[in-house]
């Protein structure tokens, strides 16, 4: 609509200029000099008006893109004007500005959220570019190395020459145990350097921790995997936003010059609106992803009580039977001894068992004679346990170490938070969750209390 009104304005003005020019020439040859003067004045006025109209439109678009470039979203154009085309153009620019501002604010909030996660992490993390510049270093790594601020790998030479030698080639390396001595005493640091790709740039992600104080090697690997998954999910969301934004910008600029308003087509306007809608949806998806991570981090302490194992598993069976969108499978309950009770948070453990049961149902969706067993008992170490077992296709050995990593999933739907959340709940209960799988024979998840 904006493009059409501007086009009509241009056509009408050019017609008036043409008529004025023809009239001036006609009256001149007819020797009607007063009429010629009037026509000439009208011609000059119409030409000046056209130039003003075009410059006004171009200036608004130029101001808009300058404001976006400088991250200034306070620019507003008046929407109550006598010229309909300019009024609609101003309205469209204001809407576009508001949408871009909303996306920018969400992106800033997400960036601050992730930075806060890394800042609060109990392991040291920093990233290095191919030139050796340290782009980010959280406070933990600076405390471990007793040096701040960290801006370049050459600074490691001031800490220890052997430590610097690890990074001198700026090449990734496997987990290395390094002994560092300083005025705070001797420390054994576990250091791992892994390559990651962000916006077509290869960076080195370095994870450092004091193995006597914090995490073991397996937990460090989990952090690296987690950050990889986070990076993957974020890039999958941000990449189309960048691509669509570039496409929309190409409608308004050619090289360093702005496109004239009369060259805008209705298709370009429609495509721009659709592209902005996609950008909005991608931003919403990313916010949902962040919310799922927030749920993972904010799990409350368990409110424990004695719960009958039989009653608990019967409730899980009823809930699984209500999953109408999944193929029905046979569900069995085995409790020994029958009067077994467990000290746990019923709501949280119900969430864990229901998630495991749904996973089992989905794995048996296309299988005949599928069976799920809900089992409770006491193991050889006199520990009480709950087990969800099925006879589905199982889990490959390659995925066995990955399934508890937050956001890792092999499904087309879901966030991949279920198993990692289950593991977190069991940690809060002072217990463990383990998996055993023999493909096509049985797969079991065991909760040990």
TrEMBL record:
CDD domains: PAS. It is an enzyme of class 2 (transferase). GO terms for biological process: phosphorelay signal transduction system. It comes from the Bacteria. Residues 110-149 form the PAS domain. It catalyses: ATP + protein L-histidine = ADP + protein N-phospho-L-histidine. Pfam families: HATPase_c, PAS_8. The keyword Ribosomal protein does not apply. Its EC number is 2.7.13.3. GO terms for molecular function: ATP binding; protein histidine kinase activity. Coiled coil: none annotated. The keyword tRNA-binding does not apply. Keywords: ATP-binding, Kinase, Membrane, Nucleotide-binding, Transferase, Transmembrane, Transmembrane helix, Two-component regulatory system. Residues 229-449 form the Histidine kinase domain. The chain crosses the membrane at residues 7-28, 34-54. This is histidine kinase.
């Amino acid at each position: 609509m904006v493009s059409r009104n501007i086009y009509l304005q241009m056509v009408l003005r050019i017609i008036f200029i043409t008529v004025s020019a023809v009239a001036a020439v006609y009256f001149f040859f007819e020797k009607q000099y007063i009429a010629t003067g009037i026509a000439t004045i009208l011609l000059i006025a119409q030409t000046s008006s056209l130039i003003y109209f075009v410059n006004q439109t171009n200036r608004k678009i130029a101001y808009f893109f300058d404001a976006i470039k400088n991250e200034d979203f306070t620019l507003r154009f008046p929407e109550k004007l006598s010229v309909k085309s300019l009024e609609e153009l101003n309205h469209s620019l204001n809407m576009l500005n508001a949408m871009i501002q909303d996306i920018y604010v969400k992106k800033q909030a997400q960036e601050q959220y992730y930075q806060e996660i890394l800042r609060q992490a109990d392991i040291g993390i920093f990233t290095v570019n191919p030139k050796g510049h340290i782009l980010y270093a959280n406070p933990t790594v600076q405390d471990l190395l007793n040096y701040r601020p960290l801006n370049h790998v050459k600074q490691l030479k001031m800490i220890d020459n052997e430590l610097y030698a690890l990074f001198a080639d700026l090449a990734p390396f496997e987990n290395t145990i390094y002994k560092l001595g300083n005025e705070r005493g001797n420390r054994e640091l576990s250091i791992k350097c892994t390559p990651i790709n962000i916006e077509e740039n290869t960076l080195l992600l370095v994870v450092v921790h004091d193995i006597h104080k914090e995490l073991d090697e397996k937990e460090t690997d989990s952090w690296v995997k987690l950050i990889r998954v986070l990076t993957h999910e974020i890039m999958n969301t941000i990449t189309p936003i960048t691509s669509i934004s570039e496409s929309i910008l190409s409608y308004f600029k050619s090289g360093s010059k702005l496109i004239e308003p009369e060259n805008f087509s209705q298709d370009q306007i429609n495509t721009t609106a659709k592209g902005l809608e996609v950008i909005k949806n991608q931003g919403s998806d990313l916010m949902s992803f962040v919310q799922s991570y927030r749920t993972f981090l904010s799990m409350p302490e368990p409110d424990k009580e004695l719960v009958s194992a039989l009653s608990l598993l019967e409730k899980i069976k009823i809930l699984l039977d209500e999953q109408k969108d999944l193929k029905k499978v046979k569900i069995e309950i085995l409790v020994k001894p029958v009067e077994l009770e467990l000290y746990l948070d019923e709501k949280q453990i119900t969430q864990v068992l229901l998630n495991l049961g749904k996973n089992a149902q989905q794995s048996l969706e296309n299988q005949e004679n599928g069976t799920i067993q809900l089992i409770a008992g006491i193991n050889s170490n006199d520990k009480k346990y709950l087990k969800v077992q099925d006879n589905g296709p199982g889990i490959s050995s390659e995925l066995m170490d990955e399934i508890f990593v937050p956001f890792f999933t092999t499904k087309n739907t879901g966030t991949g938070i279920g198993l990692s959340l289950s593991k977190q709940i069991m940690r809060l209960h002072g217990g463990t969750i383990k998996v055993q799988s023999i493909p096509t024979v049985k797969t079991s998840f065991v909760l040990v209390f």
